[in-house]
Amino acid sequence: MILFDTSVLVASLIEDHPHFEKSNLWLQKVVSGKSKGAVSNHCLAELYSALTTIPVVPRIRSDQAFQLIEESVLKYFKIYEYKIQDYTDVLKESSLNSLKGGMVYDALHIQAAKKLKASFVLTLNLKHFLMIWPDGKKILKSP
Q: What is the pTM of this model?
């Protein structure tokens, strides 16, 4: 199972994105059933936020963003639902490692990958993920 970070999903859904081709290839592997994909429920909110604010012309309307998520992710991906203990563990670990700001969101993706025992994690933020989870370098990949 491949856990997708929000960055890869955004790139795979926006044709003008510089990483569209490589990212979309991975999305198509999941859509076609050749690979099993997973995301966290938090990723869905991040994806919606990114799609509705990304500076593309024409802008992606809220209804279009939901439709993209529904047709490209919800139909094909396993969704990991965090438990309160997941959040507590991630926040505690983040505080012990002095993580700040948005890095906690990457830590949440890593938590989902660990819980799902993902074969690998796809991200366009490889540097950040490696800072948070150096032991994951064998399964952290960029498209």
A: 0.93
Amino acid in the structure at residue 45: A
How do residues 5-29 score in pLDDT, each as one tens digit?
A: 999 999 999 999 999 999 999 999 9
From the list 114, 116, 142, the residue with the least C-alpha distance to 128 is: 142
How confident is the model over 93-128, as pLDDT tens digits? 999 999 999 899 999 999 999 999 999 999 999 999
**Helix residue spans in the chain (DSSP H):** 6-13, 20-31, 41-53, 62-69, 84-96, 103-116, 126-132
Beginning with the edge strand found earlier in the chain, give each strand of the sheet holding 140-141 in spatial order. Answer: 77-80, 37-40, 2-4, 120-122, 140-141
Domain limits, the chain:
2-141
Domain covering 2-141: architecture: 3-Layer(aba) Sandwich (3.40)
User: Which residue matches tokens 């498209």?
Assistant: 143
